Amino acid sequence: MSAPSLNKTINFPENMRSAHELILMAKNGKKGNHAGQSYALPAFNVTTYDGVQAACEAFETLGSSGVLAFSNSALKHFGHGDAILGLETIHEIVKFRAKKSSVQIATHLDHGDNIGEHGRKVIRGAIEMFTSVMADNSTDHANKCATSLKVNMDATREVVELAHPKGVSVEGELGVLAGVEDEDTHSEISTYTDPIELKDFLTNTGVLLLAPTIGTMHGPNKGKPGDKVKLNIELAHECLKIANEINNEIIFVAHGASTLYPQVVEYAIKNLNTLGLNNDLETWKNFVGTDWDQIKGLIGAGFCKINTDTENRQTYLSALIGAIAQTSSKVDIRYYEKTTYKALVDSYIQKLIMAGNYGVWHEPKINVSEFKFNLNV
Ligand SMILES: [Zn+2]
């Protein structure tokens, strides 16, 4: 029996949609009443309340479709150790923020799983409260090993059966991605997605969002300086052909696709020098992102959800270092928070422009072609 299809008649809270609905518009190039070139939705991994507000302000500024992604460990952080409390809190905050919004927003559980007891509890909570979930069953994180295709398919299909009737889209993962994302997601090894397994996986699970592994890496060190990771764009196109034959509403997701803003790194290094903090200079110099040109190649291969995290974390930290280098004696949290908040908004705006995700729900409130992302102001 085939897996249940995504129920598209569900009404989410005001101005909220399933991630799949927003990303499908991007795949089809739909902005307002126009259909043009495909674009992508950077899914912003947010870990603080300021991050939620900053991302929403960026969506508002540009009239973008918004995906806010929360990992298990982010939810634990919001809930002070209790992921379910974090989930409930985020659910209420985003619902309130979306109501006052002029764009459409999705909430997505990043790297949920249906394998461990904790994962199963969180993913079920997210199906009740979010508009999209990732069921990453490609890895058994507790035992640190890849799962078999059968285990991955069965566990993912079970999530689809719970989520699709409620209108909640499901993202699966096939293959193992190398790198460190957070305490839940780290792997030394990476395996490419096998196109034959891909066909089986998509047919059996019914997922409409899938993260194949084609060479991206989690974390701030994607390869070495001068020796960046190369993405297998050819494999991406092969996967797209297979997916489109099954259902042309299937969309791919790029994990570990953070690029790096050179100006953010330069700004951090300049201010670390001012502060005389030499210990971390090498770490900053060794950060390596994926080239945006490669990511652009992926958008053409149906990767319309681009997970975006590391560069925003780096932006926040770089702005904070700069604010402290200017004055470290302001006894006012707001002074430092104002700087990091503005930097985060600009970092998000920059990525939305790069991905072509603007002018979807209304005309941008800034001149997109003149926007310059620079912490040095
Ligand atoms: Zn990921």
Write up what this structure looks like.
- By secondary structure, the chain is an alpha/beta fold.
- The protein has a domain at 19-259 and 288-309: TIM Barrel.
- The protein contains 13 helices and 16 strands.
- The strands form five sheets. Strands 3-4-5-6-9-12-15-16 form an eight-stranded parallel β-barrel, surrounded by eleven helices. A two-stranded antiparallel sheet has the order 1-2.
- Helix 2 crosses helix 13 and helix 3 crosses helix 4.
- The chain is globular and about 65 Å long.
- The model has no long low-confidence stretch (mean pLDDT 92).
- The protein binds zinc ion.
- Zinc ion is lined by residues 111, 181, 218, 255-256, 307.
- The site of zinc ion has 6 residues, from loops.
Observed structural traits:
single chain, 377 residues, alpha/beta, TIM Barrel, binds zinc ion
Short description:
The chain is α/β, with parallel strands linked by helices. It has helices spanning 19-27, 49-62, 72-78, 83-99, 117-129, 149-163, 195-205, 233-246, 262-275, 281-285, 292-299, 310-326, 333-354, and strands at residues 30-31, 34-35, 41-45, 66-71, 105-112, 132-135, 139-140, 145-146, 169-174, 179-182, 185-187, 209-212, 223-224, 227-228, 251-254, 303-308.
Topology diagram in text:
Elements (H helix, E strand, L loop, with lengths): L18 H9 L2 E2 L2 E2 L5 E5 L3 H14 L3 E6 H7 L4 H17 L5 E8 L4 H13 L2 E4 L3 E2 L4 E2 L2 H15 L5 E6 L4 E4 L2 E3 L7 H11 L3 E4 L10 E2 L2 E2 L4 H14 L4 E4 L7 H14 L5 H5 L6 H8 L3 E6 L1 H17 L6 H22 L23
Parallel strand pairs: 3-4, 3-16, 4-5, 5-6, 6-9, 9-12, 12-15, 15-16
Antiparallel strand pairs: 1-2, 7-8, 10-11, 13-14
Helix pairs in contact: 2-13, 3-4, 4-5, 6-7, 7-8, 9-12, 12-13
